[in-house]
Amino acid sequence: MNKTRVLIVDDEILFLDLMARTLKMIEGIDLIGTASSGREAIQIALEANPDIILMDVDMCDINGIEATRRIMSDLPDTRIIALSGHEDRGFVEQMFKAGAMGYVLKNSKLEEVVTAIQSVSDHKNYISPSIARTLIDSYIRQPSKQQVITEREKQILQLLDHGKRMKEIALELNISVKTAYTHRQNLMKKLGADTVVQLIKLGREKGILYMG
């Protein structure tokens, strides 16, 4: 019986070592390596061509979303499972759009990680039950008439997320400060936000804001 060749990627070294030691004991899994950054993950993946990659989403150099995108462009047969502490809809959607086939929370039991590996190995998508519930709740809470977010509103939201003030945003986008405030107000109404902090949070949850 051929073993499933697995690569683990995580920039939390203690978690990475624990996961590696644990998976080594699982029958049917061949741990071919570990990587502690997105850049290293891409390099090892291209050299070793693993069957499955357990990919951390939030890393400093190249995040898991971008690493997944790059790996899938060169190794389309490799199957990637996000291993993340984020339950927000935005992170989940971005990982699947990048090419991942699974999404598992880091606090999941080992049995669930193994189940995810087995499912994805059989070309079936897998998502942690708690995240599935979050996605369903998010979908149910959406207004029946979907509000379209314009490209300009997305630009303003991204700049707000980067800590820019409204005057700086207006200058960067070559618009008046009054126009910038109008766009922000419209965006807050569309997303149902009362504050800028809440606006940014909702932008992440809905997949409008993208990790850099």
Observed structural traits:
single chain; 14% strand; 2 domains; six-stranded parallel beta sheet; Arc Repressor Mutant, subunit A; 6 strands
Notes on the structure:
It is a single chain. By secondary structure, this protein is of the alpha/beta class. The protein folds into 2 domains: 4-139, Response regulator (Rossmann fold, 3-Layer(aba) Sandwich), CATH 3.40.50.2300; 151-205, Arc Repressor Mutant, subunit A, CATH 1.10.10. The chain is built from 10 helices and 6 strands. It has a 6-stranded parallel sheet, with helices on both faces. Strand 3 (52-56), helix 3 (64-74) and strand 4 form a beta-alpha-beta unit. Helix 8 crosses helix 9 (177-191). The longest helix has 15 residues, at 177-191. The model has no long low-confidence stretch (mean pLDDT 88).
Named at the architecture level, the CATH assignment of the largest domain is: 3-Layer(aba) Sandwich
- The total of beta strands comes to 6
CATH class of the largest domain: Alpha Beta
Low-confidence stretches: none
Name the CATH superfamily classification of the largest domain.
Response regulator
Compute the average pLDDT: 88
> Looking at the structure, what is the overall shape?
elongated
DSSP summary: helix tally? 10
Secondary-structure element pattern, one letter each: EHEHEHEHEHEHHHHH
What share of the residues lie within helices?
40-55%
How many domains in all?
Answer: 2
**CATH third-level topology of the largest domain:** Rossmann fold
